[in-house]
């Protein structure tokens, strides 16, 4: 198709920044509706408790109280659903206990909501909620995914024996993998915990729901990553109200990182309550509530064995994981430790035999679902820890060991995609390229020398490598449907050319920091050859945008962008018909380039704007052509996209204290074609901070009673500005062969590759001083590192 | 949370014991207590006002003495409720005679917390319990001086 | 019971009756509808609510509105004159120092305080000064660059002024 005036590939400054830097952003909590009321929740202080009685009488008499609802009042309403059905190995469907909007008999985790209090002000709602008397009988709690499956463990749900939601396996038959491991010259074994992470978007979740009796219509403002999906789940599965009677708006959203994908109980409850009281209801989570309620990430307990032959080639991989799902099934909880984790265990390697076995477990903790990377960081962590550890055990260089085992380069066009042992087919890759570039940027050979010298002087320097692949651009609907997804994962893009040639673009993707208003506008301006100011990106409003699946899984540009490109193509196609008529040429002779329709071999041309005007003022117009220039497209990808890269960490460990100093961090990422390098780099930086945060600082700690003991910013170690060095980043470009932009997605890469790089670096530092430890539990606090050195 | 420690006071175990069994004295020496009511043999109802880092909170609940061994020790069970969470503790208290007029008071136990106390308070809790313990023994010595 | 306060916010005088327990950030957001100042936590840790009180950066969630009685307050909405951007605002845009934008007002206000008393901060000065402000999107890399950009720009402006004066 025609191109281009060069918007694609430029670090264009972001369009959306103007409002954010001047304080004019419009987040959900900024919205106040006429006759607004405010909600506060009565939440269980126990992780597992029978609710003996709830007395709201004192609260009801408090000043400003408008209404109080308990579990009994919403008993007839369904719970929030899970969007992905998995089956036990024996074919039985997974256990899907009801996740009620308010609990009636039993609270299953700290923070489970017992009642909602609605009042004239937020303070009055909180005051009244504090005097709701709930009589609890505390029950024993389970918090650890492995222990919860053992005999005698207390049950979270009576109908889920051993607290197991489902078990699942993928890959080659276990007998074959066992045999290959047994026959290996060397086996590296690692038992580890990929700890529970709290996503911590800085904007707490907020909802504001209203009901207009005259039109029988609801409006829900919500801090979500996917307004249409929320509308679908809430209307069709929870409340049973007609979808066309509900408008869901995701205005400016202050970060998501996965935690704002899911349909939360409060969204549905506020929408139910607004109709009951006939006034708008608003609730903004406190940070303390966010810690207890916003779906956490990771939380795997894993044992993995990787076999090697005598030449250092990987022979097999065997993985057993216990995945903690929390107290209920969150929207995508079931697919994260399975289809987003097990399918990535080929990594970048030619491993011929792979088997992964996952047991998904209920516990009395906050729900666990997708957090930046979702399953893929867990897979990468597992593989890259094993490979680096094997290099140490085999006394071989970790770069060499990787190079030896990498899948050879393939472009996916002239060479076929790579079929893995775990269902996926990679699209295109050049894994040697990113590792080579990474070690060049680092000055690897010199650093290894420096490491030896440091060790001789009693200093502990470590170099940790990680090479990753991820499956993004989620996802081909037929594929995910066959795997249990209860929704398609296409995207919608509508392009409306206004009569004056200005362009309104409606996308089902949602921006909560990614900069769609810039990147998408670059694509459109580039394809039409028009100024970027002439393009407006509209997103986040179910009433404005036809439909959409939202933003997660690094899918916005690969899927949402592709849908827009399809509509652009339709517009150019129709524009050529109009231009041919205007220029009295045959349609086949009309070209579109740089904002102009031209006729081959002549100097005749008509501008994009003229054609737009003609489409809306069709006085002289092709006979059988409809007026207007407005197309909508659904794009369903042919495959996932597979970004990959190489991350390298350099650390120094203080011998006396165990403190880890991150000295350098090099990241070479291949996310396919790049529309806006500045934005891609920013996405990588943010991911790195979260991935490094997991390695060094963060992790939710539940005590044995199910109390989250670090549920505030005073206690949970969020990475701060002085925790990081400047990141050293670079790109390699291996285009995606199956979408029109050749893009692969950049949102999660940083969080996927970085965690094992840092841990590997610390382990490497310790080995350099003769401490042959296999694992240090994350986050690698000074104490843990120091203890590892003493053992 | 673990609670343990010891403190030596210059009085015989019998004197200390008498003080610990006296509701009025207890009300004076337990830090933060604003009301202490005997509700039965060895059970009390209490209201405590305690400063936890930046937060002042009022706790209501029960204190219970069990496994009483005259002049030697007892087990203290504490159940307290507040707006910021609940606290349950079981503490073993022992009086060890060191000489004629000297006793070592030992305590060893565990406290379990819920709600905000658990998720936000843990970091300050160690310091708070150390302060309260110090105050308790200081108050005890003050009362001893009076007697 | 409510208490009468008088504050000057972004150059405008306000007189309001407030409940004594009202936090300054709540007063700014709910009463004055200056929603550029954000609330990201309940422990005064995140810095999203940072404003200037009598010219110094303060977390507006750690102050009661009544404590601000008689104070001069600047919020993100009042940082620039409405026509030109403040060099920090410009720096954040030029260097991609923001993504979701939620922490940005607080970041900018904190950085503005830094540049007032340290016009030429090094990387570690900047990182140290921003310790009380969380950003979950950027990894801080581009925020550091944004502040450096602003520092350079402000110094260049100062230099120009001096040269003109001379």
Automatic annotation (TrEMBL), chain A:
Residues in the signal sequence: none
One Pfam entry name: Ald_Xan_dh_C
SMART domains xrefs: Ald_Xan_dh_C (SM01008)
Keywords annotated in UniProt: Molybdenum, Oxidoreductase
UniProt key word Glycosyltransferase: no
All residue ranges annotated as the Aldehyde oxidase/xanthine dehydrogenase a/b hammerhead domain in the record: 22-140
Gene3D superfamilies from the UniProt entry: Aldehyde oxidase/xanthine dehydrogenase, a/b hammerhead, Aldehyde oxidase/xanthine dehydrogenase, molybdopterin binding domain
The name this protein goes by in its record: Carbon monoxide dehydrogenase
Originating organism: Flavihumibacter stibioxidans
UniProtKB/TrEMBL annotation, chain B:
SUPFAM superfamilies per record: Bet v1-like (SSF55961)
Top-level taxon: Bacteria
InterPro entries to which the protein is assigned, alphabetical: CO_DH_gsu, START-like_dom_sf
Gene3D superfamilies, sorted: 3.30.530.20
This protein's name: Carbon monoxide dehydrogenase
UniProtKB/TrEMBL annotation, chain C:
Pfam families documented for this protein: Fer2, Fer2_2
Origin: domain of life: Bacteria
InterPro entries: 2Fe-2S-bd, 2Fe-2S-bd_dom_sf, 2Fe-2S_ferredoxin-like_sf, 2Fe-2S_ferredoxin-type, Beta-grasp_dom_sf, Diverse_Oxidoreductases
UniProt keyword Aminoacyl-tRNA synthetase present: no
Keywords tagged on the record: 2Fe-2S, Iron, Iron-sulfur, Metal-binding, Oxidoreductase
PROSITE patterns, per database record: 2FE2S_FER_2
SUPFAM superfamilies the UniProt entry points to: 2Fe-2S ferredoxin-like (SSF54292), CO dehydrogenase ISP C-domain like (SSF47741)
2Fe-2S ferredoxin-type domain span: 3-79
Protein name: Carbon monoxide dehydrogenase
Originating organism: Flavihumibacter stibioxidans
């Amino acid at each position: 198709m025609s191109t281009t005036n060069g918007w694609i590939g430029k670090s264009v400054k972001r369009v959306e920044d103007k409002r954010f830097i001047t304080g004019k952003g419009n987040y959900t909590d900024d919205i106040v509706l006429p006759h607004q009321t405010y909600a506060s929740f009565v939440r269980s202080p126990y992780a597992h408790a029978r609710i003996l009685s709830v007395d709201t009488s004192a609260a009801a008499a408090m000043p400003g109280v408008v209404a109080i609802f308990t579990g009994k009042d919403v008993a007839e309403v369904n719970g929030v659903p899970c969007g992905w059905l998995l089956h036990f190995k024996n074919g039985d469907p997974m256990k899907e206990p009801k996740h009620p909007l308010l609990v009636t008999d039993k609270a299953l985790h700290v923070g489970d909501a017992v009642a909602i209090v609605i009042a004239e002000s937020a303070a009055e709602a909180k005051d009244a909620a504090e005097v709701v008397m709930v009589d609890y009988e505390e029950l024993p709690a389970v918090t650890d995914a492995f222990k919860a499956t053992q005999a005698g463990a207390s049950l979270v749900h009576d109908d889920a024996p051993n607290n197991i939601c489902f078990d699942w396996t993928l890959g080659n038959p276990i007998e074959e993998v066992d045999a290959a491991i047994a026959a290996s010259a060397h086996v590296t074994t690692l038992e580890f915990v990929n700890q529970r992470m709290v996503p911590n978007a800085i904007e707490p979740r907020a909802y504001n729901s209203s009901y207009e009796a005259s039109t029988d219509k609801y409006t829900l403002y919500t801090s979500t990553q996917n307004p249409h999906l929320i509308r679908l789940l809430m209307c069709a599965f929870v409340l049973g109200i007609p979808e066309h009677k509900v408008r869901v708006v995701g205005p400016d959203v202050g970060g998501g990182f996965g935690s704002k994908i899911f349909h939360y109980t409060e969204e549905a409850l506020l929408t139910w309550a607004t109709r009951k009281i006939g006034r708008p209801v608003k609730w903004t989570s406190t940070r303390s509530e966010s810690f207890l309620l916003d779906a956490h990430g990771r939380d795997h307990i894993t044992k993995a064995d990787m076999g090697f032959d005598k030449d250092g080639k990987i022979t097999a991989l065997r993985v057993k994981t216990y995945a903690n799902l929390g107290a209920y099934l969150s929207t995508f909880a079931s697919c994260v430790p399975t289809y987003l984790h097990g399918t990535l265990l080929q990594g970048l390697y030619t491993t011929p035999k792979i088997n992964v076995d996952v047991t998904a477990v209920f516990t009395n903790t906050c729900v666990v679902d997708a957090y930046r990377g979702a399953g893929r960081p867990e897979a990468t962590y597992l593989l890259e820890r094993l490979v680096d550890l094997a290099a140490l055990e085999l006394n071989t260089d970790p770069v060499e060991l990787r190079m030896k085992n990498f899948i050879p380069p393939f472009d996916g066009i002239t060479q076929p995609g790579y079929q893995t042992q775990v269902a996926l087919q990679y699209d295109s890759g050049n894994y040697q390229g990113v590792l080579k570039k990474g070690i060049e940027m680092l000055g690897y050979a010199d650093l290894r020398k420096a490491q030896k010298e440091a060790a001789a002087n009693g200093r502990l320097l470590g170099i940790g490598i990680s090479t990753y692949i991820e499956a993004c651009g989620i996802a081909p609907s037929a594929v995910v449907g066959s795997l249990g997804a209860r929704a398609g994962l296409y995207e919608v893009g509508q392009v409306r050319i206004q009569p004056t040639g200005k362009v309104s673009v409606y996308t089902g993707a949602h921006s909560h920091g990614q900069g769609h208003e810039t990147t998408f506008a670059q694509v459109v301006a580039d394809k039409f050859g028009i100024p970027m100011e002439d393009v407006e990106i509209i997103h986040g409003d179910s009433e404005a945008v036809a439909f959409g699946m939202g933003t997660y899984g690094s899918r916005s540009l690969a899927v949402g962008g592709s849908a827009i490109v399809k509509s652009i193509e339709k517009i150019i196609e129709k524009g050529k018909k109009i231009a041919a008529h205007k220029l009295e040429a045959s349609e086949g002779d009309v070209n579109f380039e740089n904002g102009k329709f031209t006729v081959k071999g002549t100097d005749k041309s008509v501008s994009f704007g003229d054609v737009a005007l003609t489409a809306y003022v069709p006085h002289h117009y092709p006979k059988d052509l409809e007026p207007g220039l407005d197309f909508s497209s659904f794009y369903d990808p042919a495959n996932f996209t597979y970004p990959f890269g190489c991350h390298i960490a350099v650390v120094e460990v203080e011998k006396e204290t165990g403190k880890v100093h991150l000295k350098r961090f090099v990241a070479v990422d291949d996310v396919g074609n790049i529309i806006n390098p500045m934005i891609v780099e920013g996405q990588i930086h943010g991911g790195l901070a979260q991935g490094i945060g997991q390695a060094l600082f963060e992790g939710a700690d539940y005590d044995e009673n199910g109390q989250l003991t670090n549920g505030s910013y005073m206690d949970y170690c969020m990475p701060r500005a002085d925790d990081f060095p400047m990141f050293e980043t670079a790109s390699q470009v291996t285009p995606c062969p199956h979408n029109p932009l050749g893009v692969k997605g950049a949102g999660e890469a940083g969080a996927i590759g970085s965690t094992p790089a840092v841990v590997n670096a610390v382990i490497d530092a310790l080995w350099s001083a003769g401490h042959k430890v296999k694992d240090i539990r994350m986050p690698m606090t000074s104490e843990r590192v120091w203890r590892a050195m003493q053992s | 949370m673990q609670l343990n420690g010891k403190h030596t006071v210059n009085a015989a175990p019998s004197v200390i014991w008498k003080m610990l069994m006296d509701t009025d004295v207890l009300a004076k020496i337990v830090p933060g207590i604003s009301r202490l009511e005997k509700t039965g043999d060895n059970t009390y109802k209490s209201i405590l006002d305690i400063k936890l880092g930046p937060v002042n909170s009022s706790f209501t609940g029960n204190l219970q003495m069990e496994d009483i061994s005259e002049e030697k020790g007892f087990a203290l069970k504490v159940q307290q409720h507040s707006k910021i969470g609940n606290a349950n503790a079981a503490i073993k208290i022992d009086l060890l005679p060191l000489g004629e007029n000297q006793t070592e008071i030992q305590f060893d136990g565990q406290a379990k917390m819920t709600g905000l106390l658990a998720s936000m308070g843990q970091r300050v809790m160690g310091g708070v319990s150390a302060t309260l313990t110090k105050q308790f023994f200081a108050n005890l010595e003050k009362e001893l001086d009076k007697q | 019971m409510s208490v009468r306060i008088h504050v000057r916010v972004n150059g405008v005088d306000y007189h309001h009756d407030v409940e004594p327990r009202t936090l300054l950030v709540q007063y700014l957001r709910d009463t004055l509808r200056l929603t550029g100042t954000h609330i990201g936590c309940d422990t005064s840790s995140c810095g999203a609510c940072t404003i200037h009180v009598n010219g110094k950066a303060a977390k507006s969630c750690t102050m009661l509105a009544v404590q601000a009685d008689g104070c001069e307050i600047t919020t993100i909405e009042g940082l620039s004159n409405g026509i030109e951007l403040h060099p920090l605002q410009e720096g954040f845009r030029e260097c991609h120092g923001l993504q979701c934008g939620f922490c940005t007002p607080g970041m900018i206000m904190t950085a503005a305080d830094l540049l007032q008393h340290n016009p030429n901060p090094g990387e570690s000065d900047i990182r140290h000064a921003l310790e009380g402000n969380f950003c979950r999107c950027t990894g801080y890399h581009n925020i550091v660059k944004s502040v450096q950009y602003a520092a350079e720009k402000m110094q260049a402006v100062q230099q120009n002024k001096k040269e003109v004066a001379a």
